[in-house]
TrEMBL record:
InterPro entries: START-like_dom_sf (IPR023393)
Protein name: SRPBCC family protein
Alphabetical list of SUPFAM superfamilies matching this protein: Bet v1-like
Length: 128
């Protein structure tokens, strides 16, 4: 079944047992992307550019991925502290469903994002 509905998002999140600042710094560093974002580490995607929002105190990691074809994709992402004075944080990626994407493809994309966020969690928790 194909759902051509646009403006559909799925929020994929992962709790991380590490400080907000360290998670944000690691995830915001473009040099670390291939370590945790499997889709961007694929050698078939040579020439892909990723542009992050300016570093900020609010944990905004929104980014634009530009493919070699020139096609661009906006990806909202946040690191959210557990609370004031509390250790831990949640990383949330808002997966946007594009027109023509089937339910199975959208589910597969969400699973890939969840795996990437789990990898990010493991790397940051191991380093801390």
């Amino acid at each position: 079944m194909t759902d051509d509905t646009t403006n559909t998002s799925r929020h994929v999140s992962q709790w991380v047992d590490a400080g907000f600042d360290e998670v944000y710094a690691y995830a915001a560093d473009p040099d670390n992307l291939p370590r945790w974002a499997a889709g961007l580490a694929d050698p078939k995607l040579a020439g892909v550019e990723v542009e992050f929002a300016e570093r900020n105190e609010f944990g905004v990691l929104d980014h634009v991925v530009t493919l070699p074809s020139g096609e661009r994709f906006f990806n909202p992402m946040r690191v959210i502290p557990a609370g004031i004075g509390e250790r831990g944080c949640e990383v949330v990626f808002s997966l946007r469903r594009l027109a023509g994407v089937t339910d199975a493809e959208f589910d597969s994309d969400a699973a890939a994002v969840a795996a990437d966020l789990a990898t990010l969690r493991a790397l940051v928790e191991r380093a801390g």
